Amino acid sequence: MLQAAANGGAGGLVTKTISVQPAEVPRPCMAEIRGGFLNTELWSELPKEQWIEKEYKLARATGLPVIVGLGYTAAQIRELAPLVKPFADALELSTHYVGNNITPIIDALCAAKEAVDVPVFMKLSPHPNIQEIALALEDAGADALVMINSFGPCLGIDLETGLPLMGSKDGFGWLSGAAIKPLALRCVYDAARAVRIPIIGVGGVSNGRDAAEMMMAGASAVQVCTEAILRGPTVYARIAGELNKFLDDHGYASVDEIRGLTVRLMRQRGAPHSAGPPEVNVERCALCGTCEKSCPYGAIHTNKEAGILEIDEEKCFHCGLCVTRCKLRAMTMEL
Ligand SMILES: Cc1cc2nc3c(=O)[nH]c(=O)nc-3n(C[C@H](O)[C@H](O)[C@H](O)COP(=O)(O)O)c2cc1C
Description:
By secondary structure, the protein is an alpha/beta fold. The protein has 12 helices and 15 strands. The site of flavin mononucleotide has 24 residues, from β3 and α8.
């Protein structure tokens, strides 16, 4: 799969998290759900010996940077890091089963920093205190943050059997894919406002526009997992191409121009905001009625006979919903 990802246009490889013992993965352990994906994969079910003897070598043979995923406690990292050192351009430590307490997370980082001289990235779950953890990790010497891991625990039910979709003890799983993108963006943005080390954004990136959004929130690079599971390893080249096109279409010379853009703009803006009324681009508007149907204020009327969209300025609350619902981007509002 790592080689397929390389052939599919990935710019770097993050290997599956391994730990001291192989994971005993309950099954079923993956399910597509509406808007997202559930998994209860834990870490790699393969023994560390297989990774060291075979898998990392195959990853290195691609010629791409190899980021080796490890978990979880300081003692486990102390044992694993020297073993994977010959194969790693960087380590990525997962905090997924470590909890929200900062001390064991820092201890794991320190254990890795002592064992290797390559950069150590810290992969954060959507911890409630993520800004505090991010700052503490930067102070303790983390070279980059990767955020976020899947969100949960969550539950999905198979309506035919009444049983949970996941085979874990409680039937719970971890949510990923499009559903968690806003959460990932918020975490990246929160961390970017607090730290100076690079942030790698992950969570629901399915296309180039999502990648651009992550970068505007403050990410220097993005990772993609669920989209590749669902649509195959060629997604990497597609997403990179779409990101390039987005940059070209908007007159940006490189990702440097969008990285952290939202953080900078929001610093300038300060106080809560008020927006202008929606404006309609008549050439783009197809009078499809989508905006009228969902206007909570009854302020929009699709006048098909006159061929225009009428907006009642008395009723319009400038809520912005119509602008986001219009797939033809025929509506804008002054921000
Ligand atoms: C099936 C599956 C297995 C995963 N295994 C790991 C893992 O071993 N280590 C890890 O840090 N994250 C793991 N993740 C989390 C992803 O790396 C990623 O952080 C998360 O799914 C959000 O990104 P996405 O929406 O692009 O999938 C896994 C996700 C899925 C769906």
